[in-house]
Design goal:
heterodimer, A: alpha+beta, four-stranded antiparallel beta sheet, 4 strands, B: alpha+beta, three-stranded antiparallel beta sheet
């Protein structure tokens, strides 16, 4: 058998090229899971959709025999500047903060705004989760819902539209 | 001067090809960082829920015709002060059908609708 030791440099070069290609393929495949600053908007989007859906469900009457929705009832029968425990319970339930299954760590503050007769607006609190002061570092999103209530809001005892706003964030 | 050596031209050509492929792969990696941003941002900025919500409340307000004017002012004033959006709507009856004209504009997205209630 003839021993042929020619072309050894070519073999080494071939191995090196192969290695470079494998590493490149690995880097490119891996690049899709890079978490950039822009991707944080995806979480915001999901949180906003969750809050918006929860509010929408709260404005649906639970039975066909019920004339008003839980949200309308909460706004109508909560005294001004008082918080409402029912809103707290339902909203936490709908956003999976309490109830069966895995719970989210969602925090929120809810309020509603109505129009005074001189076209200024007044904000009244509805509910809030945190038992502490806000630091300003929370990364919040806002979900809103229009509700028509037939009760004394902003001093008007008629059918009026109010805007419910919920500020949501995760801890 | 040494004579021109034109050996191994295939190796040189393949080297060029590999280097070009690196260049295009770098462009792909570069673009992947902005994909999540543009899609999620456009979803957040587009006021789909706001428009659907305001349509719903306008539909409800037409049924309570006694207080239609007050609700119309509520929607206009609260949209401006809390949502930074101009919302104006009117309803009128013509040829036995009721029409609601809705105008929504938040500076980025404009939405106009002529809604026939019948």
């Amino acid at each position: 058998m003839v021993k042929n030791d020619g072309g050894q440099l070519y073999t080494i070069e071939g191995f090196a090229a192969g290695l470079i290609m494998v590493i490149t393929a690995y880097l490119v495949v891996n690049a899709t899971s890079v978490y950039t600053a822009g991707d944080t908007h995806i979480n915001d989007m999901q949180l906003e959709a969750l809050g918006s859906d929860a509010q929408k469900m709260m404005d649906v009457a639970p039975n066909s025999t019920d004339s008003i929705s839980p949200l309308q009832e909460i706004i109508a029968y909560t005294p001004a500047n008082a918080e409402n425990a029912t809103f707290n319970t339902i909203f936490r339930d709908y956003t999976n903060r309490i109830g069966a299954g895995p719970n989210h760590d969602i925090q929120f503050i809810a309020n509603y705004t109505c129009r005074n007769s001189d076209n200024t607006t007044s904000i009244y609190p509805l509910a809030s989760i945190p038992l502490r002061h806000l630091s300003g570092g929370e990364h919040t999103v806002k979900a809103t819902k229009w509700v028509i209530v037939n009760k004394d809001v902003c001093g008007n005892a008629q059918n009026r539209a109010v805007l419910v706003e919920v500020l949501l964030w995760r801890d | 001067m040494a004579r021109l050596n034109d050996d191994a031209q295939w190796i040189v050509l393949m080297g060029f090809l590999v280097s070009f492929s690196f260049f295009f792969l770098a462009i792909i990696i570069n673009q992947s960082t902005v994909v999540g941003q543009t899609t999620a941002e456009s979803v957040i900025e587009f006021p789909k829920n706001d428009i659907r919500d305001v349509r719903q409340v306008i539909g409800q307000s037409v049924n309570i015709s006694s207080n239609f004017e007050n609700v119309r002012k509520d929607v206009a004033v609260l949209s401006m002060s809390r949502k930074s959006a101009v919302v104006e709507y009117t309803n009128f009856t013509a040829a036995n059908a009721t029409y609601i004209q809705i105008h929504y504009n938040n500076g980025v997205t404009e939405y106009n609708e002529n809604w026939t209630v019948v």
